[in-house]
Amino acid sequence: MLVALSPYAQFQPSCFHLVKMGFVMGCTAGMAAGALFSIFSCLRIGIRGRGLMGGVRKTMMQSGGTFGTFMAIGMDI
């Protein structure tokens, strides 16, 4: 992605900035997908209350971290 240089000090994003942006986007998308899948699966097997919240939190963090890592690698390539 090229950014046009102008006299107003716009700059082209660095590689680290692109990787960081890819990780944040992937983490957000992964956490949203993890929330949906884990809520449905926990409710289907009958988990309620604190068990539901713990399961949803764990799945959101795992899927967010995994998808964020793959998106960061993809943005680097």
Automatic annotation (TrEMBL):
Described purpose of this protein according to its UniProt entry: Has antibacterial activity against a variety of bacteria including S.aureus, P.aeruginosa and M.tuberculosis. Acts by inducing bacterial membrane breakage. Induces production of reactive oxygen species (ROS) which are necessary for cell proliferation. May play a role in inducing oxidative DNA damage and replicative senescence. May play a role in the coordination of mitochondrial morphology and cell proliferation.
The keyword Nucleus is assigned to this record: no
Protein name (database record): Reactive oxygen species modulator 1
Annotated organism of origin: Monodon monoceros (Narwhal)
Swiss-Prot/TrEMBL keywords: Membrane, Transmembrane, Transmembrane helix
The keyword ATP-binding is assigned to this record: no
Pfam families per UniProt: Romo1 (PF10247)
Transmembrane spans: 23-43
GO terms classed as biological process: protein import into mitochondrial matrix; protein insertion into mitochondrial inner membrane
Highest taxon of source: Eukaryota
Family as reported in the entry's similarity comment: Belongs to the MGR2 family.
Annotated GO CC locations: TIM23 mitochondrial import inner membrane translocase complex
Compartments (UniProt record): Membrane
